[in-house]
Automatic annotation (TrEMBL):
Membrane topology reported for the UniProt record: Multi-pass membrane protein
GO cellular component: plasma membrane
Organism the protein comes from: Myotis lucifugus
Molecular functions (GO terms): G protein-coupled receptor activity; olfactory receptor activity
Name of the molecule in the record: Olfactory receptor
Keyword rRNA processing: no
Gene from which the chain derives: OR4Q3
C-alpha cells in the first residue's frame, strides 16, 4: 500500500511539474533591441499604418458609395481587397507599435493563436482573391465583348465567397497544427508577431510531420497561387502583344505594377513557408512585405492610379463638402 501511494505521489509531482512548465505566453524579440532604433521604427511604422488605414478605408467607402463602380467586377474585387488589407494590417501592426514603446514584448498563448488564425485567414483569402482578380483581368482583356456576361453578379459573389471559405479552411488547419503541440520552454519567438514556422520550433516534441504539413499547406498554397498568377499575366501580355496595339503601353504598365505587388506578397511567403526544418532571422524582414508594405502599396497600385476611381473620389468629396455647407 505504501509503495502504491508513493508511486501515486510521484506521478502527481510529475504532473504538477509538467503543468508548471507549460508555456502560457511567448516573448517576441521584435525587429530590434536598440531603444533608439525602436523609437525610429515606431514613427516609421506608425506613418505606414496611418497610410494603410486611410488609403484602404477611402477605397472601401468610395466603391460602396458609387453604384456605377460596383457594376464593374474589377472595382467589386478591389473593394474586397482593400477591406482585407485594412483588416490584415490590424492583426500585427498595432501590437508591433505597442511593443516598440516597451521593453517586455509579451503575447499570451491564446493571443498567439488568434494572431496565427487571423493572419492566415486574411492572408490566404487575399491570395485567392488576387488569383481571382488575375482571372478577371484575363477575361476583360482576352474576351472583352463577353466580359460583363461572364463576370456577372452571381459569379462575382460566388468567387469572393469561395475566397473567404478557402481562407477559413486554411487558417483553421494552421491553428490545429499548432494547438495540439506541447510547449514547455523556451518561449522566445524571433519575430514581431506569432507565426507557425517560429512557434512550432518551440514545441517539446519532434515536429517533422508538422513542418511537412505546414509546407504542404502554406508553402504549396503560396507557390500554386503565384504560378497561376504568373501564367494568367503571361497570357494577358501575349494577347496584348498579338491582338491589340492601341492602349498597349497603358495595359503593360498596369500589368507590370500588378505583378510588382503580387511578387511582394508571394515571394516572401514562398521563401518562408516552402522551407521546412529551419527558420532564419531574416524571415521577419520578409514578413514586413506582406504584413505592412503590400497593404500600403495596394491602394496606390490598384486604384489611386485609376481614372475612374479618382473621378469617384472627387464626386464623393464634393458631395461631402456640399453636405457640410448646407444649413441645418
Amino acid at each position: 500500500f505504501q509503495l502504491n501511494s508513493s508511486r501515486s505521489l510521484g506521478i502527481l509531482d510529475l504532473m504538477k511539474k509538467e503543468n508548471n512548465s507549460k508555456v502560457t505566453e511567448f516573448v517576441l524579440l521584435g525587429l530590434s533591441s536598440s531603444w533608439e532604433l525602436q523609437l525610429f521604427l515606431f514613427l516609421l511604422f506608425l506613418s505606414f499604418y496611418i497610410a494603410i488605414v486611410l488609403g484602404n478605408l477611402l477605397i472601401v467607402v468610395t466603391v460602396r458609395a458609387d453604384a456605377r463602380l460596383l457594376q464593374y467586377p474589377m472595382y467589386y474585387f478591389l473593394g474586397h481587397l482593400s477591406f482585407i488589407d485594412l483588416c490584415l494590417s490590424c492583426v500585427t501592426v498595432p501590437k508591433m507599435l505597442g511593443d516598440f514603446l516597451q521593453q517586455g514584448k509579451i503575447i499570451s498563448f491564446p493571443g498567439c493563436l488568434a494572431q496565427i488564425y487571423f493572419l492566415h485567414f486574411l492572408g490566404a483569402t487575399e491570395m485567392f482573391l488576387l488569383t481571382v482578380m488575375a482571372y478577371d483581368r484575363y477575361v476583360a482583356i482576352c474576351n472583352p465583348l463577353h466580359y460583363l456576361t461572364v463576370m456577372n453578379c452571381q459569379l462575382r459573389f460566388q468567387l469572393v465567397f469561395a475566397c473567404w471559405c478557402g481562407g477559413f479552411i486554411h487558417s483553421i488547419t494552421q491553428v490545429i497544427l499548432v494547438i495540439q503541440l506541447p510547449f514547455c520552454g523556451p518561449n522566445e519567438l524571433d519575430n514581431f508577431y506569432c507565426d507557425v514556422p517560429q512557434v512550432i520550433k518551440l514545441a517539446c516534441m519532434d515536429t517533422y510531420v508538422v513542418e511537412v504539413l505546414m509546407v504542404s499547406n502554406s508553402g504549396l498554397l503560396s507557390l500554386v497561387c503565384f504560378l497561376v498568377l504568373l501564367f494568367s499575366y503571361a497570357v494577358i501580355l501575349i494577347t496584348l502583344r498579338t491582338r491589340f496595339r492601341q492602349g498597349q503601353s497603358k495595359a503593360l504598365s498596369t500589368c507590370a505594377s500588378h505583378l510588382t505587388v503580387v511578387s511582394l506578397i508571394f515571394v516572401p511567403c514562398v521563401f518562408i513557408y516552402l522551407r521546412p526544418f529551419y527558420s532564419l532571422s531574416v524571415d521577419k524582414v520578409f514578413s514586413i512585405f506582406y504584413t505592412v508594405i503590400t497593404p500600403m502599396l495596394n491602394p496606390l497600385i490598384y486604384t489611386l492610379r485609376n481614372a475612374d476611381m479618382k473621378t469617384a473620389m472627387k464626386k464623393l468629396s464634393k458631395k461631402h463638402v456640399a453636405s457640410c455647407l448646407l444649413p441645418c
